[in-house]
Amino acid sequence: MSALARIVSRESAADVTSIIDELILRAANAWIFITRGRLRRRCIRHFGRFPDIARPCGHDALMQWRKVFDHNPLFVTFCDKLETREWVRRRMPELKCAELVWVGTSVDDLPLDLLTADVVLKAASGSGWNYFPGRQHWDVATVRDRCARWLQRPRRRDEWAYGQLPARILIERLNGTVDELVDLNLRCHNGRVASAFIGYAWKTDDARGAYVSADGTPLSDAGQAILEQVGRPVPPELFQRASSIAAHLSAGIDHVRVDFHLRGDEIFLGELTVYSSSGLGEEEKEGVGPIIERQWIEELDESWFLSTPQPWPVSLYQGAFRRWLERRRAELGVS
Q1: Strand pairing of 266-273 and 130-131?
Q2: Which of 151, 173, 195 is at the close of a domain?
Q3: Helix residue ranges, H only, 96-251
Q4: Residues 205, 65: one domain?
Q5: Does 195 share its domain with 288?
Q6: Taking 80 as the threshold, does the pLDDT of residue 32 lie above it?
Q7: Which tens digit of pLDDT belongs to each residue from 91-113?
Q8: Rounded CA gap, 107 and 147, in Å?
Q9: Mean pLDDT, to the nearest integer, of 235-241?
Q10: Mean pLDDT along residues 30-58
């Protein structure tokens, strides 16, 4: 066979592969659209259309892709606040955690006398299911009713890991007062920090925060103004120390948000978040989305979906997705 014939043969094979990949990727997205009704509705409300989840471009679409395809068993651990504590303790026993006051599986066992102003009542496997007795004033009937709901209803049915968890409620001692604490959430990718969010008076009516770069620089003038107004900057040394801890905890994971509570120069574990804002938050609007996407795409080979053999026919999509991923990396200029 002549050199020209070999070139033509390779180009023809590449064309056939490209056509087949296109059909597979379109079929995968159609399957998601048809079978994931709740996800479809939430995406249309957020994006204004149904995104191409099979070829996820952007932070928000990547998070939807993770919810559908990436069933990393470690996500189940991270979505359970109690299991996360144990996982982190085995890796960094020196990292401080909030004092665990009580854990239970029944509303009838809930010790109401422990619900004092210095604790928080929360679901072990939920986001936003909290009761702060020092800030809110629920009567006994409301407390019992909310806890019963937390124990009975699955959390975020379109997020796979939450569906694998036992239902538990817990009481934790707060790490400090609202005026003392700063929330620091770091977006990490296999040992690297891409960006962060600094929050003040979080989970209160006075909550304010700003997105910052990996070195702590505000990503917008509005964010800079918020940090100046609050007047409680996170010292660079403390920010870097927290970043180092977060980077260490994220090793081997394509993407995880590592959350801390800061009090003075102390760092307390918050949680490890795998479905940040369910991919339906403000990251794209605030300009941090592309920063996260670039590092996430670069480290996506670390994902469970791509590092684990998949059964047929999912393996067909896995192969087509790998080839699409290389093209996407080229578009973003990452390796």
Answers
A1: unpaired
A2: 173
A3: 140-152, 221-230, 236-249
A4: no
A5: yes
A6: yes
A7: 999 999 999 999 999 999 999 99
A8: 6
A9: 97
A10: 97
- Count: domains in the chain: 3
Q: What is the rounded average pLDDT for all residues in the chain?
A: 93
Q: Is the pLDDT of residue 8 over 50?
A: no
208 neighbors 200 (Cβ within 8 angstroms):
yes
Residues 276 and 294 in one domain: yes
pLDDT at 3: 53
Question: Are 88 and 212 within one domain?
Answer: yes
Mean pLDDT over 287-312 rounds to 97
Q: Is 74 left (phi over 0), alpha (psi -120 to 50) or beta?
A: alpha
Distances (CA, A) of 328 to 70, 203, 323, 324, 331: 18, 37, 9, 6, 5
Q: With bands split at pLDDT 50, 70 and 90, how would you rate the model's confidence at 296?
A: very high
Start-to-end Cα distance in the chain: 35
Structural domain span for residue 13? 3-71+303-332
Nearest Cα to Cα of residue 65 among 254, 199, 223, 229: 254
Looking at the structure, do residues 125 and 136 belong to the same domain, yes or no?
yes
Size of the chain in residues: 335
Tokens found for residue 311: 């059964």
200 and 233: one domain?
yes
SS3 256: strand
274 and 298 fall within a common domain: yes
CATH code of the domain covering residue 288: 3.30.470
User: What is the residue whose two structure tokens read 């977006």?
Assistant: 187
Q: How far is CA 222 from the centre of its chain?
A: 24
